[in-house]
Amino acid sequence: MTAVAQPPPVPEVPATVPAPRAASVLRRLVRHRLAAAGLVVVGLLVVFSFLGPLVHPADQSVTNLQEASLPPGSAGHLLGTDGVGHDVLGRLMIGGRTSLIIGIATGLLATVIGTVYGAVSGYFGGRVDAVMMRVVDAGIAIPALFLLLTAAAIIRPSVTSMVLILGFVSWLVPARLVRAEALSLRTRDYVAAVRAVGGSGTRIILRHIVPNTVGTITVNATFQVADAILLIAYVSFLGLGVPPPATDWGGMLSDGVTNIYSGAWWLIFPPGLAIVLVVCAFNLIGDGLRDAFEIRRSR
Amino acid sequence: MTEAAADSAADSAPVLTVRDLRISFPGGESRVDAVRGVDLELRRGEVLALVGESGSGKSVTALAAMGLLPPDAQVAGRLLVGDRDVTRLGPAELRDMRGREIGMVFQEPTTALNPVLTVGDQIGEALTNHENLTAAQVRERTLELLEAVGIPEPAERMRAYPHQLSGGLCQRVVIAMAVACNPAVIIADEPTTALDVTVQAQIMRLLRELRDSRGTAILLITHNMGVVADLADRVAVMRDGVVVEVGTAEQVLTDPQHEYTTALLAAVPRLGSGSRAAATDEPAADRPPTVLHLQDVRVEYRTLGRPAVRAVDDVTLAVRRGEVVGLVGESGSGKSTIGRCALGLVPATAGHVTLLGVDQRRLRGSRGRRVRRGVGVVLQNPASALDPRMTVGDSIAEPMVIHRVGSRAERQQRVRRLLDDVRLPAAAADRYPHEMSGGQRQRVGLARALSLGPDLVIADEPTSALDVSVQETVLRLLTELQAVHGFGCLFISHDLAVVESVAHRVVVLLGGRIVEEGATQDVLHRPREDYTRLLISSVPVPDPVQQAARRAAADAVLRESARALAG
């Protein structure tokens, strides 16, 4: 073969919007002011919940009625104590641990189930899709809270069981989102090219469809985490959360409400504020991620 | 006629004047200069073609003249429509100017029209934007316009929705909207690119008539030198935001002065510039084996509750190892469906598809997989042919992974060799598709098709989304690799000149049926069927004198077939 095919004399412009890579998404995310704030808040809350007890050890398993209902600023109890003498600051830390673990684990579980389900449904299309999506519709038609309360009444609540139950009700939305994208991705030429050389459905779904929905998936996952934290707060607030002496922020709020008339505001505000903070922070990260994935909109 | 128009144009004032136009866009850290000092003049009744490849700044210049640039564009210089400077007009003045003084014809007629309004309503809208008319007047003017753009049964078609009309009729409606208020200038941005050649010829005829009857000046933006030769009085060649050459169409196309124009014209595939000979003289026993055989294949698309649409009707064709068979036809002729059917992506409703000696229907499971090893595929759109989240190396290696060929190291080595085969550096393996140009991506697609050393390659319009110079390199590469590796190739294209340059044999399709087939030089140079003749004569050539003769020939074919139908 002789030397041919010199590069063309004119510069060519890529026809597509480049698919952003992980590094550039992260860079844009950090530059996004609100999202960066969200990241900082989440980071601080994680440090507070997981490393805080090392700085401020407080026994949460033993009740101490002599030191019950102390107001904030009491000796050794920066945020006071609750009705049975637990240190509120220490309790906020271990409660945060539960909330964050359940929230993030649920977000991940729901996203994984939803993504696989949605990708399969969208890729196969037709009747398979119709049946799979009617199942999702049925699931969405049942109020999640109702399901949760029923389940919590039957099953003994623990972190694992809460994650499983919450995950089971939260995968529906990501399933729909991913399915919608898979429907359009499956008609792309590169999917046809893989099918033509004999690539299997599993390969196409896992290697070509799912990776191309990563933007949607990540953005939705952050919202899922925020939603799960809220849901676990609801359930605990209704007294069906993880059993004492373990607790989470929703459970703390529930305990605090019984003391509201005695003026113990320090039992309400810290966990309430923590819930608001973490949910807002995750939502900000989600918004920021969406902008970071969509270069055109951020301009 | 052309000279007369140019003469009378010379003494009138220009209707569109561009003086030292500079346009830049924000891009990354610095600004990107899309247009860097362009001067143009367009007079009444004149057609000025602005030609160039993608990224040359021709479309940006046109959008600037309409005042349709995105807000982050920076514009310097003067852009006069009549005597008003578009760059200094406010939104209200721009609205007033658009439609009345300058009209626009877009590339894709089906998206330029609103699908939920009737075409009559949309033309009426274009009229009432600038004039206070009663409903009866609007109706009357709309009818006139539809008639003027040559739409049959205008009273009926007024009530039709865009999806009920063909692409060619839609483009006529778009043109009717552009000329509704009798603007002095029409900007036509690739007005025929989305259309079939025979329809393209009709639209060009219409634009010429409008120019002659109304004296409308046309700024024609195109990459197709044949269209330029057919329509333009003067030509401006753009490259990298600068006009490199201006002159009359004859001068620029037949005696180009700038080396870029020369290169651009040389890259245009020309019908009749010689073709590859078909190997027909060998005795049947020595002929290489058939790699793809379609026997009475019929493909129907079924939608629930509607009659089935027959896309392919009793097609029989064969591709042998070592030969390239060109499959030509206009949109809706079923050529892509045949390709997809051969690949097993679309099931045949009736008939037999034999791929590498095995019946398509028995291509399930592990056996089907083994047969598919011998098939490669190159698809049309470079933007979607490669997975954006896979490196180029992974994409090329994927067929090998699917068929468990070689170790990781061996695959990497083969990827490097394939990249070398398609003239890409080995470092390209670690890059992502968006970091490459359309032509480079299409070469990656070719490398992927060849990664298992196939006996059959199916190429569906592999170059139709590329600029001519890029198209030339990709086509040359394909023919070269085909000659070296000797695979059989089904080459699907709407472009007769492209098919002529790569195919040994040609199959012409119309409405899902084979109209004519045979050796390339026979079919394209001595066509037996009227349809083939019409198809060939509709392709514009980049030479104004020749093109005028071809146009006359095409008209003659049309008249003849009309007489045949009547008689």
UniProtKB/TrEMBL annotation, chain A:
Membrane topology: Multi-pass membrane protein
Entry-linked CDD domains: TM_PBP2
Compartments, record wording: Cell membrane
Main location: membrane
Residues spanning the membrane: 34-55, 100-123, 135-155, 161-178, 225-243, 263-286
All copies of domain ABC transmembrane type-1, residue ranges: 96-286
Keywords annotated in UniProt: Cell membrane, Membrane, Transmembrane, Transmembrane helix, Transport
A Pfam family it matches: OppC_N
Source species, domain of life: Bacteria
Family (UniProt): Belongs to the binding-protein-dependent transport system permease family.
PANTHER family: D,D-DIPEPTIDE TRANSPORT SYSTEM PERMEASE PROTEIN DDPC-RELATED, OLIGOPEPTIDE TRANSPORT SYSTEM PERMEASE PROTEIN APPC
Protein name as it appears in the record: ABC transporter permease
Origin species: Pseudonocardia xinjiangensis
Higher taxonomy: Bacteria, Bacillati, Actinomycetota, Actinomycetes, Pseudonocardiales
UniProtKB/TrEMBL annotation, chain B:
Location(s), subcellular: Cell membrane
SMART domains: AAA (SM00382)
Lineage: superkingdom: Bacteria
Annotated NCBIfam families: PRK10419.1, PRK11308.1
Domain ABC transporter, first and last residues per copy: 18-265, 292-536
Topology in membrane: Peripheral membrane protein
Keyword vocabulary terms for this entry: ATP-binding, Cell membrane, Membrane, Nucleotide-binding, Transport
CDD domains: ABC_NikE_OppD_transporters
Stated family: Belongs to the ABC transporter superfamily.
MF term (GO), any: ATP binding
UniProt xrefs under InterPro entries: AAA+_ATPase, ABC_Ni/Peptide_Import, ABC_transporter-like_ATP-bd, ABC_transporter-like_CS, Oligopep_ABC_C, P-loop_NTPase
Protein's recorded name: ABC transporter ATP-binding protein
The organism of origin for this protein: Pseudonocardia xinjiangensis
